[in-house]
Specification:
12% strand; 213 residues; 9 helices; six-stranded parallel beta sheet; 2 domains; Rossmann fold; 6 strands; alpha/beta
Amino acid sequence: MIKGVIFDLDGVIVTTDNYHFLAWDKMAKKEGIYFDRNINERLRGVSRNESLNIILENSKKEYTVTEKNELAEYKNNEYIKLITKLTPNDILAGVSEFINFLINKKIKIAIGSSSKNTVDILKRINLLNVFDAIADGTQIKNSKPNPEVFLLASSKMFLEPKDCFIIEDAKAGIIAGKSGGFKTIAVGNEENEKIADYYFKDLSDENVYNIFK
């Protein structure tokens, strides 16, 4: 019996991918480092510091820990400026209806996101007080594909992983969910259909409801 659903945030509840790209792109240009959308795809579901290390693979310069921290902070400040544009209108298709369905079914819901800006984003889209638990990048040491954030979310709901579904758009998130003992639903990227228990283009697909009936 499914007792809980843990949502990734970016790409599942709302899309801020382009804001991340623009912020990283600005940082890369400042440092004279090549960066494009293909590289950006590798950053999906990955922590800020790990994302930075991926970008710095294209740099000829060796950066100190202090310099890396400064670059990560620069990127985050640019990102924060961009997400001020977010409103409830940016919630992805089918999300609000699906959340209401789960609440009516008395299935607990949580956020499991590597983002350190999770609370701010949820505030801007008016969903902060909807979830039973929030686990994010400010509370964990290991980002996806490590299942730490999902295990934290399930423990905050007092549920076992086997009783929860993870909803993810990133391969790293699906791998994290499966390695943590969760059932998985992939949305968005069709490539994840091969590794997830279920796949839907988005949460407006009525077939997603059949899983929980």
